[in-house]
Design goal:
Blueprint (H helix, E strand, L loop, with lengths): L1 H24 L4 E9 L2 E9 L2 E3 L2 H8 L1 E6 L2 E6 L11 H5 L10 H34 L8 H33 L1
Antiparallel strand pairs: 1-2, 2-3, 4-5
Helix pairs in contact: 4-5
């Protein structure tokens, strides 16, 4: 029974996706594909068509912890109620796996500093990417509502950068204290 329901949902998604995209993308060629990541985690591949990227709705919704409802000839995304924890990746959950830094050895602190530096660079790169994408949208005359996800991603990246920078300063101070003993 489950296979039948899943098959019907996939069929409906394909039918609606083809109908929705047919008018604006008819005759367009896929120029390539790009891997899409959210806070460093791969969520799918986007097709590049007419200098725009198209990510499957399911990949995006799952990555953001959203539910999908295929009814009324539309694809409706909504937040899923989850009493214990959210599957929506937060910048701090993914980008800053922060252990308790107290009582760490010099080697552990140096290792953690390397991880923090890696995540910090990744968050800074993500922020720069989203900022350049928003500039492109603005040049093309899009309204802010068309790039809300990018704006949210910048805010998440900024939060991650702030937390990582604070953790880096704390680790460097601990390392300096250990080296002075």
């Amino acid at each position: 029974m489950r296979k039948i329901i899943v098959g019907m949902l996939i069929g409906a998604a394909l039918m609606f996706g083809i109908q929705a995209g047919a008018a604006s993308l008819a005759g367009s060629k896929v120029a390539g594909t790009k891997d899409v990541t959210l806070y460093g985690k791969a969520i799918g591949q986007a097709a590049i068509i007419n200098n725009s990227s198209y990510l499957p709705v399911r990949s995006l919704s799952e990555a953001l912890g959203l539910g999908i409802d295929l009814s009324g000839g539309k694809i409706n995304l909504s937040k899923q109620e989850q009493p214990t924890s959210s599957t929506t990746p937060s910048p701090t959950a993914t980008a800053t796996p922060t252990p308790t830094n107290a009582g760490m050895s010099e080697e552990q602190i140096k290792s953690r500093l390397g991880e923090v530096d890696k995540w910090l660079k990744s968050s800074q790169d993500d922020k720069a990417h989203w900022e350049s994408e928003i500039e492109l949208y603005k040049k093309q005359g899009y309204q802010e509502s068309n790039y809300k996800i990018q704006l949210d991603s910048i805010r998440y990246a900024e939060e991650a950068i702030a937390k990582l920078t604070a953790e880096k300063a704390q680790l460097e101070a601990q390392l300096q204290q250990l080296q002075n003993q």
